[in-house]
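Entry 0007
Protein: DUF3515 domain-containing protein
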Amino acid sequence: MADTDTGAPPKVVLVTASLLVAALAVAVAVVALTQRSSGQSEQNQPLALVSVPAPQAGSADCAKLLAGIPATLTSNGKELSPRTLAEPAPKATVAWGGPDPVVLRCGLERPPELTPTSPLRMVNKVQWLQVEQGDSATWYAVDRPVYVALTVPVSAGTGPLQTISDAISAKLPVTPLKF
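Output (structure tokens):
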């Protein structure tokens, strides 16, 4: 029903419509904030990792390496915080960031892909074997007394590999390759 003087809708209709628009805006804001915080809380949840054979995970070399790795890693200019691992957590394993974390494992078995003709890359004085796996790659340090694996998402850039290479080269001596 229109106001007889101006032809405008009654004030009750205008006030109700305004309140509905404001309520809708608040609801959208709440949903957006909830979505954003649930993504952040996912990173705060313990990370479940599959256990892999790591016969030397309890070694002095792994303990020395883990004591020398940085608390955070930089990936494409973004700082990656350490992740808590879900129990039972694999020994000598550390992770950073998420939802696609960077994961370091120490004391693994020799990677089966390591052969005398494997293409190796030298990064900051450490020889690495790269094994690609879909949206990530696992890099194995193959010239140290223990095998170390660093799994990184393809989007991570080279920062994590360089930082971990520095820690490995500072803490573990070079050894001949074993095939």
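Curator remark: Residues 1-44 form one domain. The helical segments are 11-44, 60-68, 159-171.
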